[in-house]
Amino acid sequence: MLRGREGWNRRGAASLPDGGLVRLLDPALRAVPFSGRDTEMGDLTSWAGGAEPVRVRLLTGLGGCGKSRLAVELSARLGRRRWRSVWLDPADEPRDVAAACRGPRVLVVVDDAASFPRLDDQLGALRDAEAGRIRVLLLARTGRHWWTRLRWASTLWTGPRAVPTSMSHVGPPAQSLARMVRAAASAFAARLGTQTPDLVVADLPADADPPRFGDVHAAVLAVLAGREAGDADAVVDVARGPGALLDHERDRWEDTDAVVARALLCGDRRDLPDRLAELHVARTLTAAPGMTEVCTARITPDEAFEVAMFAFRLDVDTPAVTGAGRLTGALLEQVANQLPDDRGHLERVLRLFPRRPAPAAQAADLASRLVTVLAADEAGDSVSHAEALGALARALDETGRPDEAYGPAERAEAMWRRITRADPLRYRIALWYAMHDLAVMCFGTGRDKEFATLVDEAVSAWSSVPDVEAVWTEPELAWAMHSLEATSAPGSVDAARWYHDRAVALLRGLVARDPVAYAEMLAMVQANLLLLVNRGRPAEALEGLRESVAIRRRLARDRPEAFERKLAYSLSNLSHALAALGDVAEALAAGQEALALRRRALRKASSSARGGAPKLRFELAWSLSGVGVLLSEQGRPHEALSLEEEALSIRRDLAGDAPDRYREELATSCSNLGVTYSRLGRFGDALRLEQEAVEIRRDLLRRSSSSRHRQHLARSLSNLGVRYSDMGRTEDAVEPTQEAVSLMRQAARDDRWQHLPDLATALANLGATYTDLSRAQDAVGPLHEAVGALRDLSREHPEKHLPGLASALTALAVALGEQRRYVSAAASAREAVRIRDRLAATDQRRFGDDLARSVRVLADIEAALPTDGSRKGPFLAARSERA
């Protein structure tokens, strides 16, 4: 029998024997007049119309934002138009659902829809309901995977004509905080038979999220509960309101906090709104070590699902309790430890965390056990088996084990292909998701051709879907656009940017409808704008990278365990873009913040069973190297030294265990540390490291003729020439520097702007080498070309390229002076002095010595300038400059 909506405790009769204040928060009572949601209500009323027999809408919003109240109000308004409302319960049998939904106009409401383990069957029953029009409103904090899965798990959408499906989001109320407080105080006082008090509203912190109706109402009730007759004005503190009301309610409880917390975890609502229930559980479980184990000991399989559901809610909407973010993992670990190897129970729990496993280690354990059970029970293909294999692959990949993840992903994709052939309309979207997963595993394991094939097939499939299916396919199409951006040819920068903009446009629409599910995906796509930086267009990447950092900073504030590593990734990329634009101070700040986050992540992992995971060590080395390079380039090589040596040590260890994966980064660290050693005067150590880098990069280029390997080899060869010159072996410097120029010319033909800085560097170094060998005639051509290239680059990004231009101009002045072309030499030297004078005015420590050198070169040239047509004296050039 359908239970409908019976207060907060929807699994049993609601009872408040002593009239607790929290009863006034139940949306079914409509205690506070409905306001501030006119736009959303108009949208829902329009959605309920139309001629289609069935329409489904997912309405998302965080706890306390007003989703349930919207549904209650919609039910009331449609009821005046002779609609009948049915509120489902998780325990309702599908046949009862069908029977209850007979009639000309029926609104079906599923509150907290993610907690319905049989929602696919319950919705499928609506196909057989004898009704004229059915509107299904699903309320949830987020869709995530349970929502997408409904498309193929429920028969509601089967058949040639798909059920119109849509999503919308309940954002901040269109009402000021003061007005919300006044309305709630007046309504609650009337209900309680007291006089409306004068209230003062406390200011919210600057970085606080917009207030939610539920929190405002809880804060007002907390003030009313604690206010004595005759009290002066009371302060309504929305940030502390739920906690204050919860403390008032606890005075009514006879049980201990731990007993109540266990009951709440296992499905007993205790007449509390979800927000207060989650707050009490978070407070109790974080109050003392071991409390999580105490409150979840000896749970039954059904209770295990309730605990997992609680973990799911905490993963989405963490209460403001220190340490609450870790509860998701702790609760899932207890569930995994106590859940039996039963197919039904494993499936129910695992489906809550399939696409972003949280925590991945427990999801991998549950999925592995489920795959084993299904393999023993079923001989052929099945939807359950395909889903379990996919969940296992994603969880393994999340734990940093892409090689292990590839096999399950491949089997899942093959299984879905066979299942889809039998019923393409129903299962094709499931197949496309499996193709996505397999493509991710291919990319992570270096299977580039397989990755490209899957992405091309997926784009073709997703792009051809009718508009009515867009709600299901847009997330995958956005991912496909992002994949095309990441794999576009080096010279196709405009094409890559088009793919990126298309992905971002799709994701902005998705974030507007379900921010919990898609905000992180938008941050991921924007973080990968590093591709534009690497292709010589850093200015275009800056805004998107800043957005990525802002999104992940907000997510990491509430869930540091889940999002700090991702924030570090965005910060590193932002640092790289800022450095490319010459904004060194901000680049260094972003890089150092990323480094601190990665050190912390590795410390936490090292103290757990995971130990120093290779993926975490790789990320730490990335930040160590990035910050070290920035410090070294800023004339702070002593500060850079320990960071770069630590990065090299980590990368040697990683390359020793997995050379194919980590040798490229090892070569990078060798080269970077070699430059720093040179700046510290350790020329022999610098030469040996650059020789090692060249050897590694030659081998990588032999194995793969990609432009990236060619570019990196050219950089190392150019550096090697400088290292030889540092040692006084100038003749030895010629050959590697010439080869560097040749390689960079080839690369620049494919993508001039990406490779022009490296080509200019190699040309400047070649010219300086010729000058030192008294081959000024050979030096002038490369130096002229380098100066021209650096002029072009400086017009776009002066902070980044003006120092290089000044260096090349100084070297050119020396070469021209050697040829007795004093007028031209003086012009180049004067321009170099002007540039370095401006640079030194902003950073004397970094550019002061360079300015002094250019001034000396100019003085020598001017001294050699003839005044009467004859040469005054010999011009003796100092050793030429290198980039």
Automatic annotation (TrEMBL):
InterPro entries: P-loop_NTPase, TPR-like_helical_dom_sf, TPR_rpt. It comes from the Bacteria. Keywords: Repeat, TPR repeat. PROSITE patterns: TPR. Coiled coil: none annotated. It holds the Pfam family TPR_10. TPR repeats lie at residues 714-747. This is Tetratricopeptide repeat protein. The lineage of its organism: Bacteria, Bacillati, Actinomycetota, Actinomycetes, Micrococcales.
